[in-house]
Amino acid sequence: MTRRLRLGVNIDHVATIRNARGGPHPDPVRAARLAAAAGADGITAHLREDRRHITDADIDRLMGQIDLPLNLEMAATEEMLSIALAHRPHAACIVPEKREERTTEGGLDAAGQFAALLPFVARLADAGVRVSLFIEPSEQQVEAALRLGAPVVEFHTGRYAHAEGGDQAAELRRIVDSAALAAKNGIEPHAGHGLTFDNVVPVAAIPQLAELNIGHFLVGEAIFTGLDASVRRMRALMDEAR
Ligand SMILES: CC(=O)[C@@H](O)[C@H](O)COP(=O)(O)O
Ligand SMILES: NCC(=O)COP(=O)(O)O
To answer: Is 104 in the pocket of ligand 2 (CB under 6 A)?
Structure first.
């Protein structure tokens, strides 16, 4: 029996729908409250540099009105650092960001950007923010996270989510091996991106993983079943996997 796997619900895409019309509805903070009532252990929100979904005002309200820990996803920029230092969320997950991308296409190159990330991670940690690095599941990136002193890594599961057959098994193996390596070195491994009811179980079964962050699928599914039902079903699948 392994420990309960935490579910962080990413509410970015409630804001995407809201922003399509520019008004206040649907409200991502209301979605965060519903997710909490349905069994989420945390809320994740990605304040993108172009503010295409979550906005600064959303972060203010999530910090002020939601009791669950906030995992603030952010690019490694001075602007985002000062926002994170002003709010001091429970966790800050540093993600790579390209203005023109449709979604976060891969993991942060923690090894290649080591020198730039070192003071960045230190400033967040000094402020009491739990730093997470959103990396590819690879030995090189886990080792870089270790040298950077990050207490948490989140493995980008997008390649796993989009692969099929033997390729998907190989991608799963990378996550399994990287989670074991991280845990062995005292880093808490998380995972997320592109997870769905159909692909979550093998990832949730990886015993070292402590948290999954899931958003786009849950919000999409909520259109058909409601957010409460979609979060509860994901929670149940994660529990069954353990
Ligand atoms: C880093 C990550 O995986 C999430 O923030 C996700 O990317 C949110 O959706 P978008 O990529 O569409 O911003
Ligand atoms: N860090 C991954 C995340 O927060 C959610 O990604 P997705 O489920 O929206 O693809």
So the answer is: no
